[in-house]
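Handout, section B. The chain below has 822 residues.
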Amino acid sequence: MVRMNDNRNIGKAILAIAVLLGAAGADAALAQTPTNLRVSGLARNRHVLTFTPEFCWDFTGTQSNWQIQADDDPNFELNLHQVVPQVWFWDSGDQDKGAQNNARCATLRGINKPGHVPISLDRRAHISYWRLRLQVGTTWGPWVASDMRMNQYPLMPQNLTAQSDSVSSNDPVDPVPAKITGRTFYVATNGNDANAGTQAAPFKTINKGAKMLAKGDTLLVRGGIYNENVLINANGGYASGEPNNPITVKAFPGETPIVRAVASGNMTAFTVEGPSLRITDWVIDGITVGGTSAAMGYLISGVKSVTVKNCRLDTTYNSNTLGMVVAFSSEDIRVTGCKFDQPVFDQLEVGAVRNLEIRGNEFTEFNNRHCIHAHGGSANNMLIADNYFHDGDPFEATVFLYLGTQGTRVVNNVFANIRKVNPNNPSDTGLAYGLLIVRGGEITAENNVFYNIEDIGILMFEFTEYGTYRNNIFMKCTQGIRFRGGVLPGSSIVGAVADYNIFYQNAGDIVTQAGELPLLDHPPTGNCLGGVPPSNSACDPKFVNAAAKDFRLQAGSAAIDAGDPLSPVPEGGGSRVDAGRYEFGASTPPYQFQPKFTVGDSTPRFTWEIRDIDNEIGDLFPGDTDFQTRYQVQIDPKPTFDSLSEGRPMLDSGMVSSLVEGYTVPDSRSLAPGQYYMRVRQWDDHDNINRGAWSDHNFRVRISGEPNPPYLSSLAPAAGAVGVLETTSIVVHVKDDGVGVNLTTVRMFVNGTQVTPAVTGNLNDYILTYTPPAPFVTNATVTVRIVADDLNASPPTLDSTYSFTIRDTIPPQAPANVRVIL
């Protein structure tokens, strides 16, 4: 997948290191020159495992100061936004460091240069650089440089399959507590915190009501304005929920509670915070936030498994406010069904959060900074899906994925009418990008619509390698997709995939710097390139009404059946996925997807393969192949994986320590016939803390009933037999060629009465033997009926009747009136 062309840019970087090291060697005689540069957290082949590593060196003299710089660029000057080019990542500065002046180790971000905003190193698939110089007395020595490579999270697992597996399994299932009937409390603006919190005697503040909640409880908030800073945290005595029994704070049905921050404390309307993941399983539903004193509307910080849904931004916001912030090592957070429609600084800001799902929201009137701004070195593996971004003029981009957003998927969204100029304030101008990716590679953007984007639909700017951009529609954009390498050519395009997109009426379709297209993973495939307007009419997506933002497809659209043949297809669609957000013939999204596999096994086996960029560039780092050490599997009837409760699937393996890339549904949790979604994420051998991205949420499998029910065989007596002994026993084989017969459903009836036969054999061939307690009546017909189900209880079932006749033991009477006729 990585060809020789890919190596040239990295080769240039390595050459630059050699130049730096050579320069350092020329001044080796200077006493200020450090030796034995090293980085903490290295594993095997220069893998750095931490975002904030410790840098160490040896020096025998007495140093009076030191300075460290870390950057992408071996020349340490890629931050061209500064008047004087300087490092992008980190600069400890040359100022006096007091007691640490004579240190031999320094931790990244431990000391910050005044006026310089430090950020942690983010993971990317190429070399990063650091350099050190020492001061002795008042004299600074030369820079001495070294390099390192951050360990990559695995990407989405690839080659997922499902198949029947006749072997019984004890693969683990994360135990889920039984559902409990929690209590319900009430809050109202005319309440009193001394009340009992009943509907008749509600609390007055949300803070008071929330503190009363335990797992499974609900706080219903009546409509009205609450002037308070809601602060839910472990240190404040607030409880956690648990899987299947979250704690819920919810708007009273049909009413709108508004929380307005006050000018005290953190000045945040609604906070749910840890620290250290000590708050888990909360649901905040239908709460509007704002306030003229608000610094933030929502703050989700240091928590796990928290859902914010159906939220709104109040009109009392000021433009310097953050609508929602999800940050500080939060984990498995969901934001869904919300409407962000106020021109705040950032409507949703993300930093240092793992596995955030932003699904089914509406973003508009983003006339200040961004809709979604993700950054901070570890905002990895997000899912941004089924959202509607429209009618705004961002300062930079509608969705800005910046520094450490690896593994993020931007799928099934609409970006429409993204402007450069605020129509209500012509002096308010910005950069009208739909999706901007800066130094955060391995991003997937698929099945989106980019319409009337005044700048660029998707812009990759510096170090955004190994991205996948497919099945999108770009119409009326200045440029559809642009790969911009920035200072280092090729640094946005190495290993990228740009396939099966539709381009129509754009000034440019796929735009790159000269000579960069060969660095793609493979030449662009399956795209419909419209060219400059009036464009190739064969690429017309034929939206139902683009001016009214109806981006469904009409018959004859170039987007129908134009997507990647390997992509899942929504139910109601054709045999191949359409490009864009909407599938022709399918119902209203979000979609259910056509099953990719059909398995006649209630305990199927799922398998997958790791995809790790470290392995794909293994030719540069020989002898270092990452492999899975842990995984987590989830199975659910819904593609949102939350049928059990908010954010909780029907079946969850939990974290499984295993090198085996496969999971069999255990016998104790067999799946009823129906359709299920499955997803998996992996850990690699260099990092047992941080996991890779979830696999596609649209991998669907059908657990089917077998085409034939159980059947009868080897009947004794045979069906229709006559002259059968009245003392005969009835022997019947109940067989099934699939998963087997469910013994608990087997019934035998003789002459209409249920009897209890002896049972031997196995689930594929049960032998029923019935000996009547008394002989059958002679010369009588015996009717036998057998009823049975498949082991997976799938229809059709066996319900079969046959008969035989007992012999006649009464001799005929002697003949009478015997005569001879001549």
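Note. Residues 1-29 have pLDDT under 50 and may be disordered. Compare this with the example in section A.
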